Amino acid sequence: MTSQRSAAIRSIATKRPVAISTEGRSQLPELFGANVFGLDQMRTRLPESAYSGLRSCMERGDELDPALADQVATAMKEWAVERGATHFTHWFQPMTGATAEKHDSFANLVDGRLLMEFDGKALIKGEPDASSFPSGGLRATFEARGYTAWDPTSPAFIRETTNGVTLCVPTAFCSWTGEALDEKTPLLRSADALNREAIRLLRLLGDDRVGFVYPTLGCEQEYFLIDRDLYLLRPDLVATGRTVFGARPPKGQELEDHYFGSIQPRVLAFMQESEFELWKLGVPIKTRHNEVAPSQYEVAPIFERTTVATDHNMLCMEVLKQVAGRHGFYCLLHEKPYAGINGSGKHNNWSMSTDTGENLLEPGKSPEENMRFIVLLAAILRAVDLHADLLRITIAGAGNDHRLGANEAPPAILSVYLGEQLMDVMDGMIAGTGKGSDRKGEQMQLGVESLPPLPRDATDRNRTSPFAFTGNKFEFRAVGSSQGVAKPNAVLNAIVADSLAWVSDEIERLKSDKGVDAAVSQVVAELFKAHKRVVFNGNGYSEEWHAEAESRGLPNLKNSVDAIAQFNAKKNVELFERVGVLTAKETESRRNIMFESYCKTIAVEAQSALSLGRTMILPAAQRTQLAVAQSVAAAKAAGLEVKAQARRLEHLTATIECMIDAIDELAAQFERAEEFEGSEHEHAKLYRDHVFVAMNRLREHADVLETLVDDQDWSLPKYREMLFLL
Ligand code: ADP
Ligand code: MG
Fold first, then answer.
1. Is pLDDT above 80 for 88?
2. Which residues line ligand 1 (CB under 6 A)?
3. In angstroms, rounded to a whole number, what is the distance separating the alpha carbons of residues 520 and 18?
4. Taking the CB of residue 70, how many other CB atoms lie within 10 A of it?
5. Is the pLDDT at 546 greater than 80, yes or no?
6. Which site in 68, 343, 517, 590 is 20 to 30 Å from 236, CA atoms measured?
7. Structural domain tally of the chain?
8. Same domain, yes or no: 361 and 429
């Protein structure tokens, strides 16, 4: 073992759980939201009129009246300054997959005196230079300015870091011409669309109580921890988030002893501190446990309104990373840090709530509630069936390609799991229609009798489905662990809003003839019949399902490049325009960015593999080769039989030869891809079909060498160490 590697391992032996200060032990209810400028703070610090105005902006996402903005800004600043804040930032989500922030201090000089100032203008609008954020061609470089605008649905919060406190204002980020340069804007637009169309449908169904509808979201976040000293010795992990080399360890996850296992004390201390931080930020963390793979974990919050939950998931990922460092860990959010064992995902639990406190996907107790539930269910099936490609695209990415369909994560085919009971209800509704117009009465069987109560557990058994109904919400399980959830949720809201609009149109068209109830029954039966093909309750991992899905005509976009290419298909551009979530130009630009990001990811991985291969693995292998060759020669010179040793030398030498060839091949493919000038799609295909393939071939030889080379010469921490030493 090289001295660095053994020093890292020795250091782990002496690491102990890191305690948080006793201040950290205050009661949960006091802690929760302590760093958020939430409703309580607003109520006590704002005049009644300002408070109610702001509250309605927060609930409905309306724009803040500039007259109000100054009052809110002042109250917010006072609150933040009392907590030690010196700076504020507009916190936003550019299309990099991460969050961005530019800090400004509250300081202002008035007659040589420093005053702490923050006015409505600074709260509502910021003007960061947009030229270095990806825009996918939306913004010409001469129009570099962008602006950030407060999203009042998501409360401001303060971040406490080692040497200071910063007020963070969640914002949307647009170009001066109004095009969305971020992930948040389309999400906000999609929530508006969903509200608009859900209300329209509810009114048609006779509901005049519900004032507005909003999507809800709870993200179960998976991640790996690795000891920081080992992490720092893996340049591939540092550069790419995953190991591009690494031989199988003697023990992986086959003993199944990690899942829900007792949590190791150092890890638990880390989890407790990160939860403590997140609670203060108002992120309602609920669950923690060991996941399937060694050193893999999960954290899950209580669901919230989607626009807030999306910000909270970004915060959760940031806090996990920051707190991990304090505990001597590094938190890996990549979808597949290690080959051969499970990767990480993010279950995206989605539903719709009303201002009257109802979950619209809760099967009802009264006939009216049941009717509503069944109509929404039918509309969602239609949305997923017609736009399976879009859902697939929102979770595309070089990282997620390693896990989707790899028998640990749902397949790339988007199907819906409903469970047997709802299948029966669906079949019943379809059959009802078939009975003809003389039995109209029966078509209206939407009451309690036709919809049995649904025990929640019975609906949550199938872990192989990418889109499962789990009792009162849908669980979109194909999202990658490192991905922001704004995009999948914007698409989900958009396709459901569009489908609701279609359903309302149909009911309106039919109702004058038959009355609303019969119209609803007919539409639902038609929808179930037309879109039943997307429902699949069986094993999504099985070979048979792939064949079956093909015969049903369901799309199977196996890899990200094929998926991304479909993003600007005519149907998709039209859909986004129809619901007002993305303009054609914005759709186009997002497609470009996704391709760009795919190419860049593979390019960084390829360069990392080349550099490690050339400068760490080959030299180590050649040292062992030299040692073996010398000992073979010495033994031979002494007149000894060395057949087996010579075989070992041959194997080692042959593998080194292959490794060098593979390095040259990867270098050539990479250069070709770098120099390529053509469409984004063709460029991405080059990376996928040539660079990525060459990188995998190189890995095969490198991983064999890892099993042959003298452990003393091997400087990269091995899987057995990274996965098991914490
Ligand atoms: P599991 O899927 O592990 O069995 P649960 O089903 O209880 O666990 O919840 C998983 C996640 O789903 C949690 O984050 C939870 O808050 C969220 N969730 C529950 N109800 C809803 C809802 N109506 N809308 C969105 N998310 C929800
Ligand atoms: Mg779940």
1. yes
2. 216-218, 220, 300-303, 349-351, 359, 460, 470, 472-473
3. 59
4. 17
5. yes
6. 590
7. 4
8. yes
The pTM is what?
A: 0.94
pLDDT, tens digit (0-9, with 9 covering 90-100), for 659-669: 999 999 999 99
Are the CB atoms for 267 and 294 separated by under 8 Å? Answer: no
Which candidate, 285, 263, 260, 265, places its Cα nearest to that of 274? 285
Q: How far apart are CA 666 and CA 695, in angstroms?
A: 6
Neighbouring-strand partners of residue 296? 224
Structure tokens at 693: 């393939």
CATH code assigned at 671: 1.20.120.1560
In a domain, residue 15? The reply is no
Rounded Cα gap, residues 468 and 106, in angstroms: 48
Q: Is residue 346 within 8 Å of residue 222, measured between CB atoms?
A: yes
Domain range holding 494? 183-220+349-552
Pair (430, 525) in one structural domain: yes
Select the more confidently predicted residue: 380 or 50.
Answer: 380
Residue 116 and residue 107 in contact, taking contact as beta carbons nearer than 8 Å: yes
Which atom from ligand 1 is nearest to the alpha carbon of 359?
A: 23
CA distance 426 to 520: 14
Phi, psi of 101 (to 5 degrees): -155, 140
Same domain, 188 and 61: no
Supply the angle between the helices 184-204 and 367-386 in degrees, to the nearest 10. 140
Judgement on whether residues 63 and 107 belong to the same structural domain of the protein: yes
- Residue keyed to tokens 């300015």: 145
**What is the spatial distance between Cα 270 and Cα 274, in angstroms, rounded to a whole number?**
6
On whether both 213 and 274 belong to a single domain, the answer is no
Q: Are strands 416-417 and 146-150 parallel, antiparallel or unpaired?
A: unpaired
Is residue 438 in a domain?
yes
* 475 within 8 A of 392, measured Cβ to Cβ: no
Give residue 375 CA to ligand 2 midpoint distance, Å.
24
Give 302 Cα–ligand 1 centroid separation in angstroms: 7
Q: What is the signed CA dihedral for 659, 662, 664, 665, rounded to 10 degrees?
A: 180
- What residues have CB less than 8 Å from 331, skipping those under 6 apart? 223, 224, 225, 320, 321, 324
From 181, 211, 241, the end of a domain falls on: 181
Q: Rounded distance, CA 325 to CA 121, Å?
A: 36
Give a yes or no: residue 515 inside a domain. yes
Determine the average pLDDT of the residues in 319-341.
97
Say yes or no: 509 and 625 in one domain. Answer: no
